[in-house]
Amino acid sequence: MPSTNPAQHADAAADLERVWAALLAAARLTREGPPGKETATYALDRSGSLRRVAADEPGALLRWRPAEGWLPAEKLPAAAHELLGLYLPLCRAHAGHSVTLGHLGQSLDGYIATSAGDSCYVTGPENITHLHRVRALCDAVIVGTETVAADNPRLTTRLVPGSSPLRVILDPKRRLTPDHGVFTDGQAPTLLIRAATGDTREPTRLGKAQVAEIKAPGGQLALDDLLTLLHERGCYAVFIEGGGTTVSGFLQAQLLDRLQIAVAPLLIGAGRPGVQLSASPRLRDCLRPEHRIYRMGGDILYDFDLRADRKQANGRDNPHPGLSRIV
């Protein structure tokens, strides 16, 4: 049975705050360039920065291995180890190694919203906090037209410490108006992406948002060009937050490194579907990515490593066949 000792709860909360601060520091350090070509161990100093320490230092939190990136230090409490394990892949992003993560929250029967578009909230408060943490560790967060029109999201990090990322809104058909909050609140830099028309008279701003255009062959935005544009702006950790069509587009184009799907204990019956891919007639040809499983309150989060799956598909052995982590 979990302890009800208030002092122990306070200590556990302080430990997790320290771990979160270390994650933010690791992301900042890596964006400046990989920490080095040698394996090293790090602790958090009083200023919120990482400092190198001996591998057996009691306050050690992180290990850097050039071939693998950031890893949890040894002998950490289970809660700290799992928090680091979930978020450290985002802290490895830099100019030579970008990371693109997609996330969807859905019901047990695979819907992200009702038929009327009601999606607040499919998943519980723990998963909402998770979204804010991912935003804080990323340089840019992307959502599509329908998400802005239906939910009017703020896409900030107001629930957790950390800076809000660049907000990127996809609106290829110019449907959105400047009265949505992301274009008026000034809480984070915002970039509106439209399909290129070649018309030099197109406005360069919508409200407070900068407007950029990219190619849209067949009416679909060239998502690889979008990622190139963001990388050129120094956004190496990119979060595709929604909705289902947008995340599915990146997945179908094989542009995601990781995919997270949070499944809520909820049955909707009919509505807007989550992941939508081209159908395969054979199960053996379907995606079955390497994954870990995390519990978030009443929700279950599947964290898929899509790049690991592609390495296996190319004939490389899986070093941990059948392995998954259930927390």
Task: Describe what you observe in this structure.
The protein is of the alpha/beta class and 327 residues long. It folds into 2 domains: 6-91, no CATH class; 99-313, Dihydrofolate Reductase, subunit A (3-Layer(aba) Sandwich). The chain is 28% helix and 25% strand. It is built from 8 helices and 16 strands. The protein has helices spanning 6-31, 78-91, 125-137, 145-151, 181-184, 223-232, 244-252, 306-313; strands spanning 40-44, 50-53, 60-65, 69-72, 99-106, 111-114, 140-143, 166-170, 190-195, 205-206, 209-214, 237-242, 258-263, 271-273, 290-296, 299-305. The strands form 3 sheets. It has a 10-stranded mixed β-sheet with strand order 10-11-9-8-7-12-5-13-16-15, with helices on both faces. It has a 4-stranded antiparallel β-sheet with strand order 2-1-3-4. Helix 1 (6-31) packs parallel to helix 2. The protein is globular and about 60 Å long. The two termini are 16 Å apart. The model is unreliable at 311-327 (pLDDT under 50).
Any descriptors?
327 residues; alpha/beta; 8 helices
